[in-house]
Amino acid sequence: MDKKYIAFFDSGVGGLSLLKACRDRYPQERYLYFGDNGNAPYGNRGEGEIRALTERAFEKLARYPIRAAVIACNTVTAECADGLRARYSFPIVGIEPAIKPAAAFARGGKVLVLATKATLASERVRRLIENNSSEVSVCLHCPSRLAGEIEEKIFCLGDIDLSVHLPAGKFDAVVLGCTHYVLLRDAIGKALGCPVFDGVSATVDHLAQVANICSKNAEKSRKKGIFFIGSSKNINKRVFFALNKANKRS
Hints:
single chain, alpha/beta, Rossmann fold, five-stranded parallel sheet, four-stranded parallel sheet, 43% helix, globular
């Protein structure tokens, strides 16, 4: 068994949704999680600030034995993925909005993309939209305070009033372009009355491919621990295990 970590980085708690999906599928792997909660969310910050915070975070991650790293943040993927891949020798996988599958599902209809200001303004996401919008109408919306409110109310998400954050209108599909929003996936789908798409499953698939993760005997393997680092490691650990408890009850 490889003793190196598969590392996850996010601006805060949002990336825990991606960590959970990966851990559920591949419990035999060793995981490390760094959430920069003190500076969350990144999505309303300028490009230079996002790059500086991300570079500082990856300098910390690189001190550990890393098998592969996952950028569990759409904003950081959009702004920093290429630069990080050029700098580090370990594979780096990023998450992107699931616009392609949403557009295929809603052909001839309307797709709502919910994402942060920085994500929607990025060249990477602009190209993604252009390449997949020939047969759908794509509506972009930035709920500027939603990621921050999720971060603040992570243990009482039911207190968040989504009507303040979501646009009016009828849509055939909604894309969650922020991993924080994935923590409210069911509530957002119910509020908008349409199917919800995110990049979580596709990112786990891609990670498994580049890191050569095999599901063989995964169910028989003993679960490995998750190593949380950073000044917010205790709260991220609490959130992660709360997510697992909620999943078992549902």
